[in-house]
Design a protein that fits this description.
Layout lengths: L2 H8 L15 E5 L6 H14 L4 E5 L4 H6 L10 E2 L2 H6 L8 E5 L2 H12 L3 H9 L1 H9 L3 H16 L4 E5 L7 H14 L2 H6 L6 H7 L3 H14 L4 H11 L3 H15 L4 E7 L3 H16 L4 E6 L5 H9 L5 H16 L6 H28 L5 E4 L10 H12 L5 H16 L4
């Protein structure tokens, strides 16, 4: 196959993003904070429900605006069905089966303890333990753990045909994927179990810290416990001793679910240079861990007006070319001195930023490994404030990436023309 045909083949990858929304599929969205991941998760869930799947979305404490978009006054730790009245008001099928739930971090941890620690008095000791409180509130991954446990519980019930998971914001998406393995290493550590055996006194523990292995475990665990003394950590392991094996088994099953064919990882990013760089890093890390990324969503790429103009025009980006003509007209009329020049500079900055984004996204798209699907969604001008706007986002996500080809061609032509000083 020639390089030209390979490039041509690329433009149709995005058409298959909807193929991820199938019965039994679990799309898990990854992405750093601020890329619109929660909105994309809700939009994908709506797309799944529109494909006649009974769908649930687990969100991370969504903003009031997104709750309003879903037509819900509040979200709790149990799935809440989107009402028929809200769906009909947005022009959607009122019989769509779409439910949403909010992530409850402390509730997920407590549910694990209640399941595996049978004695009420022992459970109370665990809940009141300072180390447990630090572990559930400050552990780098506590929210990820909670999301995975709720997913595991939801999946085990078989109540939904499609489960979309919005992961907690993190400094890097990969933290979410590493959480089960990290907790297994921490809680199942032979050194930890040996070091914090209930029969040992605090003074004997202090003596055992002399070994390098013990010092490492203590340092890792005390990082979560803050300034708490070792005795609180000992009390935690003592209370959890009989149930630790059950918890480790649960974590291992969660880890296995992450690697199962049902899970489809979808990364959400934007067109900024640092976001694209982070996306490349995640691709590399996932490959090293044996995890496959199924799709990438470029969110807030251009705006809806530009998107519509490109879709409906045989001359994409002609509105950007007019900015150069406006500059020429100002120079001829001498209008630059009375304030119009500042306005034109603003337009020129917008044009340059748009062209840079197009070139950057197109280049990134061509680099994607075979099998990684691409979807694009523009910035919604009024924001996602209701189900109708969320439905528009869902439509963009499942409509393919054919718009990118004319955008790339037009951006290249404008760039070449400007190099030749052709207006």
């Amino acid at each position: 196959m020639t390089q030209g045909l390979q490039r041509e083949e690329f433009w149709y990858r995005g058409l298959a993003l909807k193929d991820l929304l199938t019965k039994g599929s679990i799309p898990i969205l990854l992405g750093t904070g601020g890329v619109g991941k929660t909105t994309i998760a809700a939009a994908l869930a709506l797309a799944g429900a529109s494909a006649n799947l009974n769908t649930a979305v687990i969100t991370v404490d969504p903003s009031k605006r997104l709750r309003d978009a879903l037509g819900l006054a509040r979200l709790g730790g149990q799935p809440t069905r989107i009402g028929a009245r809200q769906l009909a008001a947005a022009g959607l099928d009122p019989y769509l089966q779409l439910s949403a739930m909010m992530l409850d971090v402390s509730g997920a941890w407590d549910a694990i303890v209640e399941r595996f620690v049978a004695d009420p008095a022992t459970r109370r000791k665990v809940f009141d333990n300072p180390f447990y409180k630090s572990l559930t509130a400050e552990f780098a991954g506590s929210e990820a753990f909670a999301a995975l446990q709720r997913l595991y519980d939801l999946h085990q019930t078989g109540a939904f045909e499609l489960e979309v998971v919005d992961t907690p914001p993190a400094s890097h998406s990969f933290e979410f994927l590493q959480t089960p393995a990290r907790l297994i290493r921490l809680l199942d550590s032979r050194t930890a179990r040996w070091l914090f055996t209930p029969s040992l006194s605090a003074s004997r523990i202090a003596m055992k810290v002399a070994s390098n292995a013990a010092r490492f475990v203590v340092r890792e665990i005390e990082r979560f416990a803050g300034s708490n003394v070792l005795s609180t950590i000992t009390d935690f392991f003592a209370a959890m001793a009989e149930s630790m094996d059950g918890i480790i088994d649960r974590l291992q099953k969660t880890e296995a679910l992450l690697h199962s064919p049902a899970v489809k990882f979808v990364m959400v990013t934007t067109a900024e240079p640092d976001r694209i760089r982070q996306a490349r890093e995640l691709l590399t890390q996932m490959e090293a861990e044996g995890l496959k990324l199924s799709a990438i969503v470029i969110n807030r790429f251009l705006d809806e007006r530009t998107w519509s103009a490109v879709a409906d025009s045989t001359d994409p980006l002609s509105h950007l070319a007019e900015i150069s003509e406006l500059r020429s007209s100002l120079a001829k009329d001498g209008a630059d001195a009375n304030g119009f020049g500042r306005l034109v500079r603003h337009f020129e900055a917008y044009r340059d930023r748009t062209l840079d984004d197009i070139r950057r996204v197109a280049a990134f798209a061509h680099e994607l490994p075979k099998g990684v699907k691409l979807a694009i969604a523009p910035e919604i001008e009024t924001g996602v404030r209701d189900l109708a706007a969320l439905s528009r986002v869902a439509s963009y996500l499942t409509s393919g990436t054919s718009i990118l080809k004319p955008l790339e061609s037009a951006a290249r032509s404008m760039h070449d023309a400007r190099k030749l000083n052709v207006p």
